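User: We ran a pulldown and think these components assemble together. Before we commit to crystallization trials, I'd like a predicted model of the whole complex to look at. Sequences follow.
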Amino acid sequence: MGNLLVSRKLARLARFSAIGSGLLLLGAAGLMTVEILSRRLFHFGLIGVDELAGYAFAIAMAWGFAQALFMRAHIRVDLVYLQLPAGVQRFLDVVALGAFTGIIGILVTHAWGTLAESLRLGARASTPLATPLWIPQALWLAGLIFFLICLAALLFDLMRALVRGDQALAAELGASESALRRR
Amino acid sequence: MGIALILLFVLIALGLPIAAVLGWLAVLLDWLLSPFPLQRAFGEIAWSHSIEFTLIAIPMFIMMGEILLRSGIADRMYNGVAAWLGWLPGGLMHANIGASALFAATSGSSVATAATIGTTAMPQVDRHGYSERLFLGSLAAGGTLGILIPPSINMIIYGFLTDTSVPRLFMAGLIPGIVLAAIFSLVIVVLCIFKPSLDGDRSAPTARALLASLPALAPPLGLFAVVIGSIYAGWATPTESASIGVIVSLMLAAVYRRLSWEMLVEVFIGTIRTSSMMILITLLAFLLNFVIGATGMANVVNDFVSGLNWSPLSTMLMILLVYLVLGMFMDTLAMIVLTIPIVTPIVVGLGYDPIWFGVMMVLVAETSVLTPPIGMLCYVVHGVRGRGDLTDVFIGVTPFIAALMGMIALMLAWPELALWLPGRLY
Amino acid sequence: QDLPQTKLSVIGSPVNSPNWTNVLQPFWNETVPADSNGRVTANAVSMTDLGAKGPELMRLAASGVADIVAGSTTLISGELPENDSIDLAGLAQDIDTLQKIIDAYRPTLEERYRERLGVVPLGFWPTGAQVLWCATPVEGLDDLAGKKVRVFSTTTSSLTAALGATPVTMAFNEVVPAMQRGVIDCAFTGSNSGNNAKWTDVATHLVDLTVGWGVNFIVANSKTWDALDPAVQTFLRDEVRTKLEPAGWEMARVATQQGIWCSVGDDRCEPESTAPRNLTKAGLKLVELTEAESARLREIVAEHVMPEFTQACGSDCVARWNETVGTVLDIQLNAAR
Ligand code: NA
Ligand code: NA
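Assistant: Here's a predicted model for the assembly, 946 residues in total across the polymer chains.
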């Protein structure tokens, strides 16, 4: 059964994307260090490193949201939740995941609009690099969409487990970090 | 406004992810209060904040901490500090505070500080007969120094939200950080003198041990000098200095032969896990702030406070009290991101220095990660301990919460504690 | 006759900028309500209160987040190349020329803003001359060779490179420590904003080489605008043209001139002329370009800055530019191939 879960497969992908995000951040750190050294020691500044680091940051974070989801790192305050019976907890899990999916869906819709507008205008950054904005924005949006897919898949798996009456699996998929630790 | 706050608390208390609550609140407020479709700005606002240079320092400082955690620096450092402080009444508990303070100088987060020093120190508790509760408390309390002694993620967020200089905030936190560490140690000494059962083994300092400790203390001090020194010397912005810190700590890990692909993967996963969680909350809080700003709700609060006609000091005490209560129940990051854009202008309007208030906010945040029922650092220390009851930790931190209250009072009495150093350096 | 009751939402410049405190805020909070007998009112918020950064403002106007939005064309030059047409680095060396350029080009901007960006432009005015601040002796254009200069846009970057200097990018608030410690030699910003940001503490020379004017736009969302009563449309257009624009131009003149005078310690310095943010009287050395240097600058702009612009702008746009701005300046560009 466990192998049939969509979210499990996505979790493996999320791990890869998190490693990629980490590499991207490390690359940005390296580039910034080189820039500072060359600026200080050789009096030669590189143009636009700060701008590129900004794009790397946006893309790395967007592609990292899913990993935090599968590691249950997105903070839930479960003080009240922990006092409730398991059935209510599962119900709240569905609500929590549904709300999360919904709001990221809204964000993705608007981010899509931003990318579309950049494409329509052929917009470039008003900086010395004059980066075509659609490139970093598309990579960023792709990360957000990946996160949305992961959320939807987790919600789907959770609901399916509940419909089939598999309480243990449902708890594993939906419960908060500390609730799971207490079991 | 009141209804919105109540809704916020109810949704958070039901266990909804905080990021989702912030986002939905933005959507609902826009829907209910604004005649204009503010939601349409979400894509633009989200993008412009996602590429914000100042905020890149957050994942960078987290990555630096993750590398140090896995480089073996912390173990050596802990033993080095123990050689210097182990003779005091309270023995290794002073090493907990001292090593935390030292590690704080290279780490931007209190969770990382508590986890790192906690992992290193925990095996000592059984071996030397300390009161387990007080020992755990000193680890959690020491962890809070992570965000007061620079670098500090909370100060980066505060500086970003209020347009305050992050380098000056960093400098402002240094002296209060050292003073607070001293007060923590004083609390341990006093408790152990009056109740010797709390105490355990002490170790007399030998010249040889002191000398041998130096190579273990050099790397963290050197890293601090590079990271904070490069900011102070004007070589680098906080974001750039964090990047240098990442590269230098990688080099240190290589020197200690801990660098490997497996280690890097762990570093990356750990970094992304923590920082993407923090950044998502920050991002959605920005959307909420945009809606709050556009609907003029911030003005309502402002008018209310100035309508009270209280003196600056009583207003400040009231604000601090509200924060301490909020901080018991709320996630610290969410609390800061949500309230700072509204509260800081009020406080500055009363004549308080925004740098000073930034340090005050950090002290409040430190308290809130210790206080039950939701005390992030107590969870962390409890997690590291891996046995017993969470209540032990909450009991153990009580004297240190009192110490934090004392520190807040000191800051009210002598604002120079925070303001003197940045005044001298800038 | 009485205008229909109209309430507008307005987003404007950064809080504390002379533009916000002295131009936009009084205009929307006092002038407009007074002149309409309280019929037309506005809820005007500074972009700072919204946590907006500037580049996104035009899109906020287009998507209808607010009815009317004022912002800087420099920050959105990448969205519409025509924005650069009026403020190419080094093109207009004095404010009167700038005014002629904008007057000549206004019809083109109105058309392009409406068709490409979905907004109705109501007015344009500058923030102030963007000049060169140096922390090392720079007595003329030739001295810039080999210097490190902080730039803020695509065209200032190409101009700097063409002068033989190295363009560097960094955040505005990093400039003072960077100059102090020799990380950069010079930096561009407004004569007024540089003084306000205490650049006078570290700079020694102020080169009166204008690389731009930070032109502001004020636009209305086209759907909101079209739905307004024609009388209100006329009223608002007239108010902007006869009250807001003149106030903005006057503020820019004062800010530019006083920024220079106060920074170089001229007797005509009046620190309170840009209140609420007062200017500091300092003793920088003022460096003015000679006739020959001005001619050389024009040449460099034509040879090195313009090609990038014509590339981005396209042949129709270049033709329009030649007919309008080109005629004012007596420069004719070749369309890029
Ligand atoms: Na720290
Ligand atoms: Na708490």
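Residues 2-182 of chain A form one domain. That may be worth checking against your pulldown data before setting up trials.

User: Thanks, that helps.
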